[in-house]
Amino acid sequence: MSIKIKDVIHKESPMTQGHRMCPGCGAPTAVHQGLMGIDHPLVVINATGCLEVSTTVYPFSAWRVPWIHTAFENAGAGAAGVEAAYQALKKKGKIDKEIKFVAFGGDGGTYDIGLQSLSGALERGHDFTYICYNNQGYMNTGAQRSSATPKGANATTSPAGSVIPGKLQKPKDLTSIAAAHHIPYVAQTTLHNYMDVASKVKKAIETPGPAFVNILVPCVLFWRIDPALQGDICKKAADTRFWPIYEVIDGEWKLSYKPKKRVPVEEFLKPQGRYSHLFKGERSKALLEQAQADVEKDWEYILDRCGETWEPAE
Amino acid sequence: MPDVAFWQGNQAIAQGALAAGCMFFAGYPITPSSDIMEEMAKELPASGGRFIQMEDEIGSIAATIGGSIAGLKSMTASSGPGISLKQENLGLAYMAEIPLVLVNVMRGGPSTGVPTKISQMDVMQARWGCHGDHGTIAYSPSSVQECYEIAIKAFNAAERYRQPVIILSDEVLGHMREKVFVPPAGSYAVANRKRPGVKPEKFVPYLADPEDDIPPMASFGDGYRWHVTGLAHNDFGFPSAREEEVEKNITRLVRKIDRFRDDIVEYEAYEVDDADIVVVSYGTVARSSITAVKDARKRGLKVGHFRPVTLWPFPDKEIFQISKRAKTIIVPELNCGQMVLEVERAVHGRAKVIKKGLVNGEVFMPEQISSFIQEVA
């Protein structure tokens, strides 16, 4: 189901330009890239978050499609209600269009407060796609940590100081949690490759039943990066294996991207202000070694699930 | 000589809580209250306390209940939708008589409302938000100094009356910076919950002292057996549906606040003794009202101001006294008319009560209050 850029380049995005997201923010890029290959009429369900707030500043809306803002904790349940009613109308012959339902939530609304609602919707088997635009923290409320925030990141509620080096816990593996619902399609990606996001989201939407896509996107304010580095930093996330790119199709794990070379995770961490404390002082070496060890361990887990081996060029 | 600080209201509440001995905070980010959580995240580990960011609003108050049961003075803070999500566990804390402080930095509602702007729409929610009967204590600060002082008072009330205490702050106060005189430790009262005076084998967890209707509280880990439940329960804490036990349980939850009403109620009366017109307002609005009242006095009008500091219990007797002389009472508030219902109830028809609501996310300007006064002068 891979799509070609020439097929989609002239299509109108369901979300217009001119929204109020920050320059360099990855969330609107994820929306544009994800939805560019979709031919069906769409309904969008949006959890509370930056995407919701900044695309709908009164009296404007950046959405060309029907759009509902639920509360923070229930994009999954909101989508479930809309989809179930659509199925009922379709069964009665009152609607004949093939409408697709896409829910968007940040990592706060997906990993944390909205997890119960998402899990319920995945388990009940609604025909919808949930896309988590994951910038690894609560950005709409001021850079607090979330359960997606990486170990070692400096957030306002896991501040890095002389004793505690930022967040102490590893983020939860939500993509695996979604896969454990035994739904037909799960994927994890980032903005490292234009067509990868488009292909994965298209597959998710066109697969009957529930689908989940976890897209790592930078927040320039929290990650403290140059807005121009959006694509670059995402590419580093994939190349350093900090954020493995893979799919789980009907329970089959499939690695989508194997970096050719072993790139140290420092290359992903270094350009980001949220990790600056890892590069200072006596404990720097130990913290960076730990960060690399965590990457290797997680990568082994993914390789194992995908039945792959990895032999990087030295 | 007190220290002088320059704090935001949210910061002052966090600092006041620490001064009162708060050692546990569980929270979840939400505008406009997140600063309280951020301050606690910085300060609590340094003071030997514990901060946890929870996975949602429900988890935050549930963990706060847990922190208090384990023996630490505990607090959580939120706004708007977060306060709505906390209501079930707030009810649990009333039912199981768990001291805690819940800060509500009010923003516009209902639902997501106007997250970045002020409202006073949660006054009735503070009283009746969770299902079931219970006594309520809710404070309304109107300056950053008072945010600090009320945080201490709220903890003292929670510890003394063994139940949740609400601070109804608001978005403007939460983000406004003012000078705060920080009193030295030991110069203000700090209350601590009553501990069991009997050996563990003689302990009956919900057997209240007749003189105050408040049972002593053990901490988990002290060796006292305490069964904590949200079900109606007897003195042993065990679930009961027996008529006399349920009646005894619920009436005591209400009575333990009612009987100390005079101790709890606080208010600030300004030039009310000879006033024909009295403005009754609270929180940030009271600041505008006082300016308008002073201005009216300069113009020779007999106008006063009454500010409830406790919105619950409501200072109804005190307002009734005022209504014996005042002909008109003006109630400006940032909702469509909530506290005005209590004012109407308090005056028993002795004075004309005029409702003035504003729900556009702004605060009444002093000139607007002046015009309300002018309308009836």
Q: Can you tell me the CATH class of chain A?
A: Alpha Beta
Classification by helices and strands of chain B: alpha/beta
CATH homologous superfamily grouping of the largest domain in chain B = Thiamin diphosphate (ThDP)-binding fold, Pyr/PP domains
Termini of chain A, distance in Å?
Answer: 33 Å
State the low-pLDDT regions of chain B, or none: none
How many beta-strand elements of chain B? 15
Helix content of chain B: 25-40%
What is the architecture of chain A at the second tier of CATH? 3-Layer(aba) Sandwich
Number of domains of chain B: 2
Strand elements of chain A, count:
8
Unreliable stretches of chain A (pLDDT < 50, length at least 5) are: none
Tell me the strand percentage band of chain A. 5-15%
Can you count the helices of chain B?
A: 14
H/I helix tally of chain A: 12
Helix content of chain A: 25-40%
Describe the structure.
Chain A has a single domain, classed as Rossmann fold. Chain A is an alpha/beta fold. Chain A is built from twelve helices and eight strands. In chain A, helix 2 (26-35) packs across helix 8 and helix 4 (75-91) packs parallel to helix 6 (115-124). Chain B has 377 residues and is α/β, with parallel strands linked by helices. Chain B folds into two domains: 3-182, 3-Layer(aba) Sandwich (Rossmann fold); 268-376, 3-Layer(aba) Sandwich (Rossmann fold). Chain B is 39% helix and 21% strand. Chain B has helices spanning 9-19, 34-46, 57-69, 80-85, 87-96, 123-128, 144-161, 171-175, 243-258, 261-264, 283-298, 316-323, 339-347, 366-376, and strands at 3-8, 22-27, 50-53, 73-78, 100-108, 114-118, 138-139, 164-170, 177-182, 267-270, 277-280, 303-308, 310-312, 328-333, 352-357. In chain B, the strands form three sheets. In chain B, strands 2, 3, 4, 5, 6, 7, 8 and 13 form an eight-stranded mixed beta sheet that branches. In chain B, strands 10-12-11-14-15 form a five-stranded mixed beta sheet, sandwiched between helices. In chain B, a hairpin with a 5-residue loop joins strand 5 (100-108) and strand 6. In chain B, helix 1 runs parallel beside helix 7. The radius of gyration of chain B is 21 Å and the shape is globular. The N and C termini of chain B lie far apart (44 Å). The model of chain B has no long low-confidence stretch (mean pLDDT 97). The interface between A and B is medium-sized, with 22 and 20 residues.
